[in-house]
Structure formats: C-alpha cells, structure tokens
Amino acid sequence: MPALTPTQRNAIVYLRSPAAIRERCQQVLELACADRLHHFAYHPDKLPEVADYVAAVTRDAYPNLEVPFHSRWRHFAVGGIDRVAQLDGHLGACSPAERARCHFDLVITSVLLDAGAGARWRYYEAPSGQTYSRSEGLAVASFDAFLRGMFSSRTDYPWQADARGLQRLTEAALADALQSTVDNPLVGLAGRATLLRALGTAVAGAPQYFGTECPRLGHLFDYLCGHASAGSVSAQQILRAVLESLGPIWPGRLSVGSVNLGDVWRHSQVTGPGCTAGLVPFHKLSQWLAYSLIEPISAAGVTVTGIEALTGLAEYRNGGLLLDLGLLTPKHAAVLAHMHTPDAEVIVEWRALTVALLDRVAEQVRDLLGLSAQAYPLAKVLEGGTWRAGRRIAREKRRDGSPPLRMVSDGTVF
User: Fold this and answer.
1) What is the C-alpha separation between 299 and 97, in angstroms, rounded?
2) What are phi and psi of 132, to 5 degrees?
3) Angle formed at CA 396 by CA 355 and CA 388, multiple of 5 degrees
4) DSSP-assigned letters across all residues of 104-170
C-alpha cells in the first residue's frame, strides 16, 4: 500500500470490509424507511410477497432444499455438463494445492469477465451444440478460453492465468474467444479486455500475493494458506486478500490517497467520518469472487469460516427483483426512462437498498422454508434464491429478460 496517513489507512480498511457495506447500505435503507430518498420509495408491506416468490423459485430449482453456495462454479455445470471434471482430467494426478491453484486461475478470470453481457449476446459451445447467454454463456466462454490457454504464457501448461498471459491479451483476441461481433455484441468488451490486462499488471506487481517466478493468480491460494490459522481462513480474509491484491485493476474509480477503492461510490445523503463521508462500498465482483473461492479452498482441505459475514450482491438481478415485485418503486419518471452510469446517485441508491433488503428478504425466506440462518446462510439464499428469482421475474415482465433500469456498463460493475 502506498504511503498513507493513519486516517487514510483506517478509512481504506473500513471501506473494504463487509461491515462497512452493511452499515452504509443500512443508512440508505433507514432513509428509505423515513421516505427521505430522492429516487426510490420503499414498501415494506411487499416484503412477504417477495419472500414468497423467492421461496417458490427455490423449491422449483432445489426441491430437496439442498442448495449450494452462490458461486461461479454453478455456471460451469450449465446444461448438465461437468466442465470442471474436464479440466481436472487435463491436470491429472497433480497435488491438491496445484489443483486449487488452477481452479483459482480459472474462477478469478471467469468472474472478472462476468459483468452483465447484455440481452443480445450469445455463445455457441461447439462440443455440446448448445447456445448459452448471460452469466452461463460467459462462464462457458471463459472456461473454453481458459482451457485453450488464452491466459497462460506457457504453451506446455495452458491451464493457468499468469501475468504475461494476461498482459498480452488483446480486445480482438477476447472478442474472438467470446464470439462477440457486430451482430452478436457483448456489452463492455473493451472494458473487459482492459480489466484483464490490468489484472496481469497487478499480478506482476504484487509478488506477496502472486509469487515471483511466473507470477499467477493461483498463487493467491498459497498466500491464503500462509495466513491460515489452525487450518482455517475466514471469508473476510479471502475478501480482504482479493480487494488488496486486485485493487489497482478497477478503472476510473474513487481513491483515498493513491489507493483505488474499487466498487465504492458517492451518495449525497450518506454520512461518515473523515474521507469516508458520503461513500457507499459494494464490492460486488470481489464478493462474488470471494464466494467462488470458498469451494477450491475447501476442496484443498482448508476450512473456511465466517461466510455469513459477506453481504448480498449489489447487482441487477437482485435489485431488479425488488423493483419488479414492487418492494421498491421509482419516485420520478427519469429512474426508468433514462440510461444511468454506475456512479449515478440513482444507481448507488438502488444498489444500496438491494444489499440492505437482501438481509430482510433472507430472514423471511428462511422462515418460509423452515431453515435456520446457520443451515441456510445468505450465500444459499442468493443461489436458491434471489438471483434466480430476479432473472425469472425479469423474463415475465420483459421479453428480453433485461433489468428494469437501463444502465451503461463498462463490463466491470454489474
């Protein structure tokens, strides 16, 4: 971390914590409860309807209620194909640690390519003959690219994502891999390519996280193991490592000192001390990544604790669910009529309400399913769940399944 004052350092640590995400989003919800927000009205009487819808969607998807954690790994099995087993077949009889490194390499690149694809984009998987869209399409496309060695600098070992392999990635090569064309446009393609090249630079510049000899994303597993206590790491440790190591990659973000804050935005009604005043952190992709790193860490024999500390994800499926079912309603026509950028206060407000209300929805969903918070943590509520319900209601409301708000995406937020 660059030279900072103690106040700046404390602010950065705070803004990177799940506690800060919940506290700042709760502030926005309290304003909504007092009907003091500029863009959205909150209707708590609609909360049971939202919970009923989510519970019904969950029972449809998982009749036995054996719901896995919300993570990228679910998408790699779309179409009933165990693609990760294909990767493991290539890896052969490697050590559990090396398998975990390769799984880190795969899932980090895939998650960072997973911001919204747009309604028109499709990916055709030749071996299966199937066509996929949105998150599943991006998962299959990024898996295929990884398997072909797109992110590796070693022709003899394509199943890794290392600094040189990422830094040399071109927009044209990524477009080819993701089948993005004028007639099949992927939203934010240029931003994704820029993000992965920045990722390569971050990997090369952070040997403490990614190693010194052929630095690669997978060495983040070794870093976490090195900080394990009695064979366990916490979910907050995973998120902190992700935020600290990948912080420099996010384009055009706010900063404290010279430290990039990532998915942190301003809202005029949010308070806080010092340089945190007005700031609302979300860390959507980073938390999505932290959730997705839990499985390879656990498979390698390291226990992950405190998963419930992570928050819901401030993205358009969860947020769209709340709008489409009327838990939130716009206060003026511009909310739905205009195109909004990620830093627009209307988007920050919507995302903050999404995070805060996901905790409330989760409580009621658990009651409906007859499950405790310990048996059914938020990571399962999301999977079962709110994300899936948000997609379903979007398709019921709009033919193309698009979110209710119109957003400009650079491929690094939503």
Assistant:
1) 9
2) -125, 155
3) 40
4) HHHHHHHHHT-S---SS-EEEETTTTEEEEHHHHHHHHHHHHHHTTTT-S-TT--S--BHHHHHT--
Interacting residues of 308 by C-beta distance below 8 A, sequence separation 6+: 235, 373, 377, 378, 379
* Nearest one of 133, 21, 154, 19 to 78, comparing CA atoms: 133
47 is written with which tokens? 């909360």
Residue 217 to residue 226: CA distance in whole angstroms:
15
- Three-class SS state of 195: helix
What pLDDT, on a 0 to 100 scale, did the predictor assign at position 187?
Answer: 86
* Nearest of 333, 358, 357, 348 to residue 413 by alpha carbon: 348
Question: CA-to-CA distance for 325 and 381, rounded, in angstroms?
Answer: 17
Length of the chain measured in residues: 414
Taking alpha carbons only, the member of 407, 401, 408 closest to residue 324 is: 401
Average pLDDT, the chain: 95
- CA–CA gap between residue 223 and residue 103 (Å, rounded): 15
**For 146-195, how does the pLDDT look when each residue is reduced to its tens digit (9 = 90+)?**
999 999 999 999 999 999 999 999 999 999 999 999 999 998 899 899 99
Phi, psi of 278 (to 5 degrees): 80, 0
Q: Is 8:319 a contact under the CB 8 Å cutoff?
A: no
Q: Kindly write down the DSSP assignment for every residue of 325-379, as one continuous string.
A: TTSEEESSTHHHHSEE-TTSHHHHHHHHHHHHHHHHHHHHHHHHHT--TTTS-HH
> How high is the pLDDT of residue 410?
66
Half-sphere exposure of 52 (CA within 13 A, CB side): 7
Largest CA distance in the chain: 61
The whole-number average pLDDT for the span 313-329 is 97
